[in-house]
Design brief:
By secondary structure, the protein is an all-alpha fold. The protein has helices at residues 4-20, 46-49, 53-67, 71-80, 83-103, 106-121, 138-159, 165-182, 191-201, 209-220, 228-240, 245-250, 255-278, 283-290, and strands at residues 124-126, 132-134.
Amino acid sequence: MTSPLNAALRGRVRAWVLHAFPRETGGIDYDQPAGDPGLFDPDGATWRVHADFPGMLSGGLCALMLQTLHPAALAGVWDHSNFRADLVGRLRRTTNFVAGTSYAPRAETARLIQRVRRIHDRVHGLTESGQPYRANDPALLTWVHVTEAYGFLQGYRRYAGPVPRADADRYYDETRVVAERLGAGDVPRSEQQVLDYLDAVQPRLACTARSREVLAVLSRMRLPVPLPGLSRDLFLGAGAALLPDWASAMLQRTPADALKARIGARGLKAMAPVFRAALIDGPAQRSCLRLGRDPAWIRRGFS
């Protein structure tokens, strides 16, 4: 039997998550047409990985930290977004896009991808060192995709449960479809290919003054939730705990930063079951109903 205290905690967690990440934004229809699985096989890896809120939010923050190291990705954010004033809005838009392309029917996913392609067509300029960039460059799109997929998978592994190599390979092979439809090229399709890609791209990365400014804005972000500073530090720490060692070194993370990451990771690991119990009717569950499946089915782990 559920205790009143546990029910109240779940209610509070649910309320603040839905306030921070409203589901009605984006106008995505997850309910119709019945039987339409969308881009991914529901029995594959993507549906399971992307259904876990703690892993996805921490993984998305890890990806943002990684993306500050790429001069062109950083320049696009610097020149074409209001990240200083609306970083939460950017997180919301990314959350909606990932959820929509993961679970919505095919017509909805095509609409979302086409809209992002149109936005990318307008994003171009010069990097900090004066090199031209454009958001629809295939190599740049691959970098953004790989950092996100890496973060989401590592987030699931850290805060939800193990993912065997074969399932990790399937996850990367599945999710590259979205990147390719956005225009990415030579997208890694297995875990080993992702690791090889990250090794190969490191000489083109750098932590610059702009990188540090974006990270500083991230560290001051105020989520629209109770105890915003504590919530921010917990999730940022949990996201930083997912960074590969080479990225932590490049970002010049200090022993104090490492301690915050450990505390954040432990805190999110402890809170993860509460998030899962509170969030039982999101896009993943609605999409299960669209396919005539029990919504609880989406929470099955990897064997």
